[in-house]
């Protein structure tokens, strides 16, 4: 799917992320960051010669670190994609470009209300947004890298399909949905969706239910 030097960074929406550059040079005035959301989208310059481009939708949330890294605040699901850092002197690229695939985990609720009444059914949809290229999808990434999506309770125990309180469905490799009927004791209860690789948790996103 990608070269051995490519980084895969998993992050949950709402968090801040730090994407490393190759640091061939320590003068960040030579640094350019380029972004593609997917393979057939046009490349977007986020940083040019160490200066933020003002016409990008995310520019207010971007900053350049002292090590020429790209910092993005308050990640949204639209920030997923393929990021490249290049450094130039006299239009000659210095060293290898740094390549980072950013994968964003996001949970949405079937209810638009901030408080839901007991006895109501609610579905929480957890989706991993990943860069896809020709013939390579998010599902390919998951199957090739040994990545899993799962729902866990506050104690960290995996919610099982056999538990009659919950209906867990996975309509696609990169989406998993938890459906349950809310009880009074569910007020302030946390449900967590995790991305795991083997026994390592790569990122997690928490949804807290408020009962009206």
Task: Summarize it.
The mean pLDDT is 85. The radius of gyration is 20 Å and the shape is elongated. Helix content is 4%, strand content 46%.
Features:
single chain; 212 residues; mainly beta; ten-stranded mixed sheet; three-stranded antiparallel sheet; 1 helix; 4% helix; Ig_V-set; Ig-like domain-containing protein; Ig-like_dom_sf
Q: Span from first to last CA?
A: 46 Å
Backbone shape: elongated
Helix amount, in percent?
A: under 10%
| Unreliable sequence segments | none
Q: Outline the biggest β-sheet.
A: 10 strands, mixed
- The radius of gyration computed from the alpha-carbon positions, rounded to a whole number of angstroms, is 20 Å
Classify the secondary structure makeup into a structural class.
Answer: mainly beta
- Quote the average pLDDT: 85
Count of DSSP strands: 16
């Amino acid at each position: 799917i990608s070269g051995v030097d490519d980084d895969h960074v998993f992050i949950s929406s709402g968090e801040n992320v730090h994407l490393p550059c190759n640091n061939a040079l320590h003068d960040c005035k030579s640094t350019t960051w380029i972004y593609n959301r997917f393979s057939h989208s046009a490349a977007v310059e986020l940083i040019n010669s160490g200066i933020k481009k003002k016409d990008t939708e995310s520019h207010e949330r971007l900053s350049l670190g002292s090590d020429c890294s790209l910092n993005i605040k308050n990640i949204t699901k639209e920030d997923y994609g393929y990021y490249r850092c290049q450094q130039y002197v006299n239009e000659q690229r210095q060293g290898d470009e740094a390549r980072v695939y950013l994968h964003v985990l996001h949970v949405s609720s079937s209810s638009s209300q901030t408080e839901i009444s007991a006895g109501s059914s609610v579905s929480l949809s957890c989706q991993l947004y990943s860069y896809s290229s020709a013939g390579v999808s998010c599902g390919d990434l998951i199957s090739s890298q040994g990545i899993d999506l799962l729902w866990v309770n506050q104690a960290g125990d995996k919610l099982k399909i056999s538990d009659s309180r919950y209906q867990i469905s996975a309509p696609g490799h990169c989406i998993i949905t938890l459906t349950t009927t809310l009880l009074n004791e569910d007020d302030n209860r946390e449900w967590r969706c995790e991305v795991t690789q083997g026994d390592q948790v790569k990122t997690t996103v928490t949804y807290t239910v408020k009962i009206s």
